[in-house]
Amino acid sequence: MTQLIRDMARIVGEAHLRERMVRPLRGLRVAPFYGCHIQRPATVHENDAAGEAPALDRLCRLLGAEVVEYQGADKCCGFHVVSTDERIAVHMGGSHLANAKAESAQCVVTPCPLCHTVFDAYQPSMESELKQKFQVPVLHVSQLVGLAMGLAPEKLALSRHVVGCKGVLDHLAA
């Protein structure tokens, strides 16, 4: 997955991506979430050049977003624990969302559908358990790219999210 993100700009071409952008994500504060699986095996993760920003960060910046750095962006979301002990999973994922929110992220973006599921579907449980209001929309990386390319929110199924994406859409419309 990391290789795919890393290669997206190279395969498609940064110039081609920029050319196709009709709605740059200017000023949108995006918290990339890599999770635990995307960075493994280490032989794949080590393809980033020393000192180079991680691939998802670079893609977000290419799309015009402002990357939010926060603690836990490369940790486990809790998906694999949810069926065994939902409370542990809720605490794991909730701590990452709390950290992203504390850094003023307007949304979280992840290439992992499992992380997306946990952060979106379980966010109400996270809020309840941690006694905090997050309301942080979670986008799959393909949805973020789609928004920058001008695809309609309906085509990207943003209305199917548990946590609404209105704040992101309002920011992009401004």
Brief descriptors of the model:
174 residues, alpha/beta, Rossmann fold, four-stranded parallel beta sheet, 9 helices, 4 strands, 46% helix
Structure, explained:
The structure is a single chain. The protein is α/β, with parallel strands linked by helices and 174 residues long. It has a single domain (2-173), classed as Rossmann fold (3-Layer(aba) Sandwich). It contains 9 helices and 4 strands; from the N terminus they run ααβααβαβααβαα. Strands 2-1-3-4 form a 4-stranded parallel beta sheet, sandwiched between helices. α1 (2-12) packs across α2, α1 (2-12) packs parallel to α4 (55-62) and α5 packs across α7 (123-130). The mean pLDDT is 87.
